[in-house]
Amino acid sequence: MTASLPTGASRAELEDLLLDDVPHGDLTTEALGIGAVPAIMRFTARDVMVASAVNDAAALIAMCGGEVELASCCGATLTHGAPILTARGPAGALLKSWKVAQTLIEVWSGVASAAREIVAAAQSVSPQVVVACTRKNTPGTKRFAAAAVKAGGAVMHRLGLSESILLFPEHRALLGEQPLASTVALLRRGAPEKKLVIEVTSIEAALLAADAGFDVLQLEKFTPDEVMALSQQLSERPRRPQVAVAGGVNAGNAAAYAGAGADVLVTSAPYLAKPRDVQVQILPATH
Q1: Which of 4, 37, 270, 273 has the fewest CB atoms within 10 Å, counting from its CB?
Q2: Within the chain, where are the H helices?
Q3: Could you give the CA distance from residue 230 to residue 220 in angstroms, rounded to a whole number?
Q4: 263 pLDDT exceeds 80?
């Protein structure tokens, strides 16, 4: 059953999308009197893409009264012309769900495809490196964004402020002259089960943070050469924190950062990706 498919969004979120697009019915379909005509709707890929939000689109179509057969799954690489899904039902149900379902797949497949490109570039040099996408997605779209990131083979860096510790320079400015070691002790008491991450902007600051006991050094806008220099110095120490690179990471430089010794590549780039094109055909059910 389509309705039982795991979706990135909740039913309420999908209902909100429909309410936004069809708040008072489909005026064109109603005026033409074709809502009850048996119809078929086919989604196919026009671009090479990593599919995402396919289950959400299918669930949305089902909510409108369509019966859906999936031909692809989230995370699958699709070539031009590859089928994504087929839906059958009254024309009114298919026309109501058409554009919202199409747009979900197009937008979030773009994000998934961009994430996959960065992962592939980085792991071609260092198979163990992890690509982590930030929480800087469009507000209100976090469920879709997280699902697309996972479909592309990346992970979420932070889902929000509530589940992780990341000390920014802005936090430190509010602490006055508090030593870093004291800040670490304070954070350990307040969140004893969490890893402590700190953003740093220089090699010197990174080494001081490592000495203070931070678990992860998030290097803001370091060059690959700077990452390599820091990694070499950290390798000579008995305790090596993880190295995460952030600020401007993309498919073009991911391999360089991975080769320089980064453990994690932190990026927001996939959220700015161009949507992938999905072709939709709606025909009488006799076709």
Answers
A1: 4
A2: 11-21, 27-32, 54-64, 91-123, 142-151, 169-173, 180-190, 203-212, 224-235, 254-259
A3: 13
A4: yes
